[in-house]
Amino acid sequence: MNMRVLHLRSSVGLYGAEQVILNLAGQLNAVGCANHIVCICNVQEPHLELVKEAERRCLSAFVIDCRRLIDFHTIKSLRELIRNRDIDVIHCHDYKASVFGLLAATGLKVKRVATNHLWTRSSLRLRIYQTIEGILYNCFDKVVAVSDVIENECRPFVFRKSKLTVIPNGIDLHPFALENRIEARRSTRARLGLKESDLVIGNIARLSVEKDQAVLLRAFRILTSLYKERSLKLLMAGDGPEKSNLKGLAKQLDIDNDCLFTGFRSDVPEILNCLDVYVQSSRREGLPMIILEAMASQVAIVSTKAGGVPTVIADGEHGRLVEIGDPDQLARVLDDVLSNPDERRALGQQARVLVEAQFSAHAMAARYLTVYAGITENRECSHG
Q: What is the pLDDT of residues 352-364, one digit of tens each?
């Protein structure tokens, strides 16, 4: 009998966790599993990007409205969906999904999986919610962390440690195999108002405290004093609660004319291809999808040692690593990489080889398939 999986997410945009869900559902569909993506939609601040992208990829997707902290209509709708679709596994992808998923699954013969993509702990309210989620993990059949660092954060909450497992994120490599990369790079830069001669540093992420783009702006300010003879640009693609603060900081540092805030972008492969260096300045991370995407794009990477990044990038081999929150070191390493085109090329090529071997969406889906099969009695996915 084919397995039916429901992925539940309270989404606030199309970010790394959403890409994981989309890639996972697509890969599992290909091996005979029926996957449904369900978005819990906060009616006061609706975000339907995940569902729209799922529909664009011809994946089954649903929206369930939520009007309050605990909405029993939401629970009822989710419960009906589980029954009507004869769901075998409900897979929850954030703290709100964990709460609603467990309540909806009560009394039903459905297995429960939770993935911890990242506990940001960026506010007292989030710390409380994420602590509650940690306690609720004991009600799940399996708890997946996307990195060893996150698994260690989950471990104190889970009584039966065998419930815990680590599955690294994986990406679909095909969108990053651009035809005629040089022409694509030239075209994308022209659309963004960038010159072919510009040295372009880029960051693609939610503009939020844990991503710490402020330290990147401070590092960029140091760099601009070293590159007076050549045009240096900083491209920041993304949206989020820190947007106005970051724009204000750029103006305060007198670098706003060289900083390009593009907002959310759907053309990530093209954006990565037009960069000279990709920078991740985060304080907290799981295993960021954008790092894997930058590796697939063969762009040189400079990243902080946040979360699972050091388990993927070996310093000096697949990218360069710096300490968290140190703009001076970040500026020095960026200067080193920008000054050495041969190093940039070698880092990008070696990163691509690694991501192909270990971090594909296919490999990720195979690991999740093993988890589902291990907790589901007398059911298995057809492999075609």
A: 999 999 999 999 9
Torsion angle, CA of 329/331/334/335, rounded to 10 degrees?
A: -110
Pair 320, 344: CB distance under 8 Å: no
Q: How far apart are CA 6 and CA 12, in angstroms?
A: 19
- Residue 311: how many CA atoms within 13 Å on its side-chain side? 18
Going by C-alpha positions, the residue among 19, 11, 7 that lies closest to residue 286 is 19
**CA gyration radius for the chain?**
21
Is residue 306 within 8 Å of 281, Cβ to Cβ? Answer: no
Q: Which helix (H) or strand (E) holds 16?
A: helix 16-30
Sign of CA dihedral 6, 308, 328, 332: negative
Cβ proximity of 343 and 337 under 8 Å: yes
Q: Mean pLDDT in the chain? A: 93
pLDDT bracket for residue 123 (50, 70, 90): confident
- Tracing tokens 């372009």 back to the chain, one arrives at 200
| Neighbour count for residue 168 (Cβ, 10 Å) | 19
What the chain holds in terms of domains, given with CATH numbers, is 4-170+360-375 (3.40.50.2000), 174-358 (3.40.50.2000)
CA pseudo-torsion sign 355, 361, 364, 370: negative
Q: Give strand pairing partners of 232.
A: 199
Number of alpha carbons in the 13 Å side-chain half-sphere of residue 36: 20
CB 43: neighbour CB atoms within 10 A? 10
Task: Please state, in angstroms and rounded to a whole number, the distance separating the CA atoms of residues 259 and 261.
Answer: 6
Between strands 89-92 and 111-116, the pairing is parallel
